[in-house]
Each structure stands twice: as C-alpha cells, then as structure tokens.
Amino acid sequence: MSLAPEVSPAAIPEVLRIRPRLIEDERGFFFESWNTRTFAQSGLKIQFVQDNHSRSTAGCLRGLHYQIENAQGKLVRAIRGEIFDVAVDLRRSSPTFGKWVGVTLSAANHEMLWVPPGFAHGFYVVSNMAEVLYKCSDFYSPTAERTLIWNDPDLAIDWPVSSGRDPKISPKDAAGALLRDAECFP
C-alpha cells in the first residue's frame, strides 16, 4: 500500500490541501505526516528547516503573518482540536493577489494545508483548544516579519467567529496592516 498523500489544489491553486493515507485498525491509526520522497512524488518538493508547535484556546486568532524576506512556506496541521486555516495571496503579479482561501483542519480529519511562500497565513481556533504543528521552509526572521490585520474589509475573510464576539488576538496582530498599506511580494 502506498502511503503517498492525496494532494489537491485549494481555491487558489498554489495552496494545496493534503490528505494523508491512514492505516487504521482496532489499535488506532498511523500515517506519514512528512516523507520527502513520497511527498515529492505528489509534487511537493520542499526542504523544511524549522518545525513550530502552538497551543491556543477557543476563539484565539493567530495571524495573518508572513515574512517579506526569507519568505516561508508552511505545511500546517492540527493535532488536537479544530482550526479554520487561512492563506492570503500577497504576490502582486498573481491573478489571485489579495484573495484568500480557508479550510478546516482538525485532529479528526488529519488534513494538512501547504501555504507557499508569498502568502500570509493565520488561523482561528474553533474548538475549545487546538494544537497546531507547522513545518517551515525558511527560518524565522523577526526583522522580516509582517502582519496583515485579520479583519481587513478589502480581504473580507469569512472567519467563523461567534456573532458579537471579537477573537482573542495579540497586540502585534491587532496592529496589523491593511492590505492596501502592506508590504507585499512582486
């Protein structure tokens, strides 16, 4: 049995939804969350240099983050709980510049999202708590980090935020730029 994942484009074709091949039985399940060879056979020829792990409570929104230099691609998955994961195209030369795609990632569906360099990334915690792992294709660079504001009306992201409640965000994320003022990619 091949453990190669099922890879399909999201609404923005460079953003990829990845469904790993699960081996399940009465003991539980097993899947390869990353294998350079099998993922390359599926079109994902990426070298990762950093793994990150975050834990967040219900209603927490992290993002929308990107690095203008040392742009990072991110392979994102939820290992506990459920998140609404978002990628925003910040490549001015792209026909999908300023567009976003959002997918539900959860411990139950085991799906992953490939967010390529040139995109801002963020997520909203739908469950009581979520733990998110993501692999990065370049190192974190604090001086290159930028943030888009989560509620930019020009982006009009349909976050699954409860009516009348603002998400829990960091001061850095609250000070994010509007797309029209943001430093973007060529």
What does this structure look like?
There is one protein chain. With 186 residues, the chain is mainly beta. It has one domain (47-181): Jelly Rolls. The chain has helices at residues 36-41, 171-174; strands spanning 6-9, 16-19, 23-25, 28-30, 50-57, 61-67, 74-80, 82-89, 100-106, 112-115, 119-125, 129-136, 145-147. The strands form three sheets. A six-stranded antiparallel β-sheet has the order 1-2-10-7-12-5, with no helix packed on it. Strands 9-8-11-6-13 form a five-stranded antiparallel β-sheet, with no helix packed on it. Strand 1 (6-9) and strand 2 (16-19) form a beta hairpin. The N and C termini lie far apart (42 Å). The model has no long low-confidence stretch (mean pLDDT 95).
Residue share in helix: under 10%
Total domain modules: 1
Radius of gyration: 16 Å
Strand proportion: 35-45%
CATH class term = Mainly Beta
Strand order, biggest sheet?
1-2-10-7-12-5
Number of discrete helical segments: 2
Oligomeric state of this protein: single chain
Main β-sheet, in a few words? 6 strands, antiparallel
Write down the CATH topology: Jelly Rolls
Number of strands: 13
Element-level helix/strand string: EEEEHEEEEEEEEEH
CATH architecture: Sandwich
Class based on secondary structure composition and strand pairing: mainly beta
Residue runs with pLDDT of under 50 for 5 or more positions: none
